[in-house]
Design goal:
The complex is a heterodimer of chains A (about 40) and B (about 650). Chain A has about 40 residues and is mainly α. Helices cover about 95% and strands about 0% of the residues of chain A. Chain B has about 650 residues and is mostly helical. Chain B has a single domain, classed as Sodium/glucose cotransporter (Up-down Bundle). Classes of the chains: A mainly alpha (about 40), B mainly alpha (about 650). At the A-B interface, helix 1 of A face helix 10, helix 18, helix 20 and helix 21 of B.
Chain lengths: ~40, ~650
């Protein structure tokens, strides 16, 4: 496989892995705050 | 193909049994808790992290990379390997700060330094990045082992990639970081023995140091003996501008966290040390041994150049050190040499398996998926993550063909655009999570564009390396500085808690004032002043030792000089050059001076900090469960943060 293409694939996986981690963090943060808001109002 | 006798196989088997068996021995300790599985219970004396720092700085592809740069550049090529000197300053600055934070990982540290959504996004980002990077590193060093197996025994490449990694995974799964660090100690000894032996055998294969020097002269290559053989200020393949850039990246980078690709691995070693002092010495000694190792290697590789001069194909000359060992060592010792190669490989694989699993377990699973997981579950998740990383690395390894290019590209990615933010987040209170996150995202895109895409399409010419670095840094700053200054500073409450715990160096005056106002720390002016302060203070109270003083700065300035003197000095000493002896002796004297100046202070810091550590650890775990557990913190709990 051509080196540029391998690099592109490798970097894409790196991007995806980091974004997935960030997405998970965001999802957890949202869930926590949504739950928190609900309890705060009750 | 190498001829292996029964005696060689016996030696290889015996060493393998020792290294792997020694690691398995700690199975019972690893299963006690998450802290044991990933940090050996934070109880290691300095020499164990030191040997582990050395071992992790000695990856399977390291002999190829060091051989490549020294073969192509002579002794000046050692400066490429000087990137390990980030440990010189980091030992006395960032290691101290990071150890005091008690964070398991760099990703966790982000949530102590920053707060709110930005901190969480950063933690998730870094955890994802590190899980990937560790798998990537496992793949690339696995491929390096595949090449060595192919060179030595004509094995298909996949054999070297898969078999040793599976053996390593067995003890890493069972014994966790206990197995890693104990294995590293045993493997480090075997590796040092082989490196010294093969270098000496190489030098004497050309007739000894004098003949080696004469050989280079007769080949018209005497410049290779000069570590300062520059090709100009900006021109040629080794200009002063590039040398200075490398020095800045390595040495000044020690003020930050994450300025080197190795930081993330060594952060685990720093945190596993039993005191702040042990963490500092562990990192310092590991870095020093690594650079001395490079000196030994360089002498052997120069000998290889005399034996096989002017090889043009990098893939051929990068295997020079391996060829010296396999072709020159007598029967029996070839087996020991192969055991040493396995030792280097095993230590790298085990470290990255455990580290990748740590990021997954602590920063993704426990933080975001199951904050109330018990210790037993966390250890098993760690094991499962280790296994998944192993399988992923096989897939990734088989995709990679050119190790050196990957390494250089990865280093660029890690260093250029986020080098300065990595320092700023340690030394500047106003730097915030949005600034740091923006630098990461911008860096990935910008470095890919500047280094690969734009030159490929001839939009810009291929830039010299030093220009690439400073350009990437400037482009990154154009993004992260506005992002920092246009968003709010971290809440003072959060910054004060971080400051009191870690006592960072640099521009923290507003936070320091607030901490003093709240009565959490003592101001410098309130401390009892000596009538006449000695030039070098040797008696410290805990409060005095918490402040950054001239003793710290002496260690900070002297330490990189010592590293440089030892690295170049040892290489020249092996070539029997008079300057080698002088430099080595100066390096040793400088090393002792650093110890003499900084040790009393590090002892005082450690004693004071250890007294508070249990409470800090309890608070850290409590915060994790309060923030992410089923219940929300009460008002009184919130006010305690």
């Amino acid at each position: 496989m051509e080196r540029g293409l391998v690099t592109l694939i490798g970097m894409s996986i790196a991007y995806v892995a980091s974004f997935l981690g960030m997405l998970l963090a965001y999802w957890a943060w949202r869930r926590r705050h949504r739950d928190g808001d609900g309890r705060g109002r009750s | 193909m190498t001829r292996f006798t029964t005696l060689d196989w016996i030696w290889t088997g015996a060493f393998l049994l020792l290294m792997v068996g020694g690691a398995f021995f700690f199975y019972r300790l690893a299963r006690r808790s998450e802290s044991d599985f990933f940090l050996a219970g934070r109880g290691l004396p300095w020499w164990l992290p030191a040997s582990s720092v050395f071992s992790t700085h000695t990856a399977t592809d390291t002999p190829m990379w060091v051989t490549g740069v020294v073969y192509a550049n002579g002794l000046r090529g050692l400066w490429y390997t000087f990137f390990a000197a980030w440990t010189a300053i980091a030992s006395f600055v960032s290691a101290r700060i990071f150890r005091r934070s008690l964070a398991y990982t760099q990703a966790e540290w982000q949530t102590l330094r920053y707060s709110g959504l930005g901190a969480e996004l950063l933690r998730g980002w870094l955890a994802g990045w590190q899980v990937f990077m560790n798998m990537f590193i496992l793949g690339w060093v696995g491929m390096a082992m595949g090449k060595v197996g192919n060179l030595a025994f004509d094995w298909p490449v996949w054999v070297g990639l898969v078999i040793p990694s599976v053996i390593t995974a067995a003890y890493t799964l069972a014994a966790g970081y206990w197995g890693v660090v104990m294995g590293d100690f045993l493997q480090g000894i075997v590796a040092i023995f082989a490196i010294v032996l093969v270098s000496l055998v190489g030098v004497f294969a050309v007739g000894g140091p004098t003949e080696l020097t004469n050989g280079l002269v007769s080949l018209g290559e005497a410049w290779r003996l000069d570590a300062f053989a520059f090709t100009g200020v900006f021109s040629g393949d080794f200009p002063i501008a590039w040398w200075l850039t490398m020095l800045v990246i390595a040495v000044v980078g020690g003020f930050g966290m994450g300025t080197s690709i190795d930081w993330y691995v060594e952060a685990q070693r720093i945190q596993s040390a039993k005191t702040v002092r042990d963490a500092s010495y562990g990192l310092w000694a590991g870095g020093a041994i690594t650079l001395v190792r490079n000196g030994f290697w360089a002498a052997g590789i120069l000998a290889f150049f005399v034996l096989a001069p002017h090889l043009a194909d990098a893939a051929e000359y990068e295997l020079g050190w391996f060829r010296l060992g396999f072709e020159l060592l007598p029967v029996g010792l070839v087996g020991v040499f192969f055991a040493a190669i396995l030792a280097i490989h095993l230590s790298t694989i085990s470290s990255h398996l455990n580290l990748g699993a740590l990021y997954f377990t602590r920063d993704l699973f426990q933080r975001y998926l199951k904050p109330d997981a018990d210790e037993r579950t966390l250890v098993w998740v760690g094991r499962l993550a280790t296994f998944v990383l192993l399988i992923g690395s096989f897939f990734y390894g088989l995709m990679m063909e050119q190790i050196t290019q990957w390494l250089i590209f990865a280093l660029w990615l890690m260093m250029a655009g986020i080098w300065l933010p990595n320092i700023l987040q340690v030394v500047w209170w106003r730097f915030n999570a949005w600034g740091y996150l923006s630098s990461w995202i911008a860096n990935l895109g910008v470095s890919w564009l500047v280094v690969w895409v734009l030159p490929s399409f001839e939009v810009i010419p291929e830039l010299p390396q030093q220009v690439q670095f400073w350009l990437l840094m400037a482009l990154g700053a154009a993004v992260f500085l506005p992002a920092t200054l246009l968003t709010r500073a971290e809440p003072m409450e959060h910054l004060v808690a971080y400051y009191v715990m870690t006592r960072p160096i640099g521009w923290w005056k507003p936070v320091h004032r607030e901490a003093v106002r709240r009565g959490l720390i003592v101001d410098d002016d309130s401390l009892p002043q000596d009538e006449r302060r000695p030039l070098i203070r040797r008696q410290w109270t805990a409060e005095q030792a918490d402040h950054w003083t001239r003793e710290d700065w002496i260690a900070i300035v002297l330490s990189p000089v010592v590293f440089g003197l030892l690295m170049i000095g040892v290489a020249k000493l092996l070539l029997l050059q008079a300057s080698g002896l002088t430099m080595t002796l100066l390096g040793l004297a400088g090393g002792y001076a650093v110890y003499w100046v900084i040790d009393p202070k590090l002892r005082a810091v450690s004693v004071e900090y250890e007294a508070k550590q249990t409470a800090y650890l309890a608070e850290l775990e409590r915060r994790l469960h309060i923030e992410y557990g089923d219940r929300l913190p009460s008002t009184s709990e919130r006010s305690e943060f």
